[in-house]
Amino acid sequence: MFYRRVAVTRRGTCASTLNLECRSSSCAPGASIMLTLLHGCGRSLLSARTHQNFRKSYYSAQMAKRVAVVLAGCGVYDGSEIHEASAVLVHLSRGGATVQMFAPNIEQMHVVNHLKGEPAEEKRNVLVESARLARGNIQDLSKLSVKDHDAVIFPGGFGAAKNLCTWAVQGKDCSVNGEVKAALQAFHGEGKPIGLCCISPVLAAKVFPGCEVTVGIEKDERYPDTSDTAAAINQLGCKHVSKSVTESHVDGKNKLVTTCAFMCNAPIHEIFDGIGSMVQGVLKLA
């Protein structure tokens, strides 16, 4: 990291204010910093605590990770699982990351009446529905550029298996949406971490042969769908690693961080804890 000197102003013999513009590629666009250099004073104009807070704020801003979050609609049965998506955003916020959400501009596989748990005779758009979760601040997945982000995360929900790929109807023989596959390959190719939870780790299993992921604990009644999903993942030549709902698994070679989330019949706070572990793992690798 280096800086270009912009301006210097002096105020008597007590202090000089030095404006420095960040010239590092790791800085956010237009990032700059003003450093107040105090010298020759009988008493410092800044307290030690103020100085420490300034440094902490500056370095936190410089280290903030830029994370893309890819949604698949809105609602557990035909889109992104709302609690999982919220947990991802909460933990990214707590980790000081900046977030931009994306979704493919495609029609949903189908629409499910969440009150009845039955398909409804209507059509909905994945990007439009995802905007509900994103409070309108979302972009078409086609605009996702790996150079603008340090990591990408895919929350779960049936939308990941219905709209981002066809796993819900074809299992291990499914196909992955072209834009989703391109995004996964781009981040993987740049050595940038990818986080996936619930059923979305199957995306990695389809795109990255030999990778390691978790969708929970096999042969455990709290994880009713894990055994079948894990078997399919293994059949793809990947390795399923059993992890509890509050844990995540890190595939260091491929920079994949996965957790099972609602693949487990667990209290919501345990889901949040597991996703927190996943997010922390992603941010550490970013």
Describe the structure.
There is one protein chain. This protein has 286 residues and is α/β, with parallel strands linked by helices. It has 9 helices and 14 strands. The chain has a 7-stranded mixed sheet with strand order 8-5-4-9-10-14-13, with helices on both faces. α2 crosses α9 (268-285). It is globular, with a radius of gyration of 22 Å. The chain starts with a strand and ends with a helix. The relative contact order is 0.12. This is Zgc:162944. It comes from Oryzias latipes (Japanese rice fish).
Give me some keywords for this one.
22% strand, 14 strands, seven-stranded mixed beta sheet, single chain, disordered N terminus, 2 domains, 286 residues, Zgc:162944, Rossmann fold, three-stranded antiparallel beta sheet, alpha/beta, Class_I_gatase-like, 9 helices
Q: What is the H/E string?
A: EEEHEHEEEHEEHHHEHEHEEEH
Strand content: 15-25%
Mean pLDDT: 87
Fill in the CATH topology of the largest domain.
Rossmann fold
CATH architecture of the largest domain: 3-Layer(aba) Sandwich
Summarize the structure.
It contains nine helices and 14 strands.
SSE blueprint and pairings:
Blueprint: E1 3-11, E2 15-22, E3 32-38, H1 48-63, E4 66-70, H2 82-94, E5 98-103, E6 111-113, E7 118-120, H3 126-133, E8 138-140, E9 151-154, H4 158-162, H5 167-170, H6 178-189, E10 194-197, H7 201-207, E11 212-213, H8 226-235, E12 239-240, E13 249-251, E14 256-259, H9 268-285
Parallel strand pairs: 4-5, 4-9, 5-8, 9-10, 10-14, 11-12
Antiparallel strand pairs: 1-2, 2-3, 6-7, 13-14
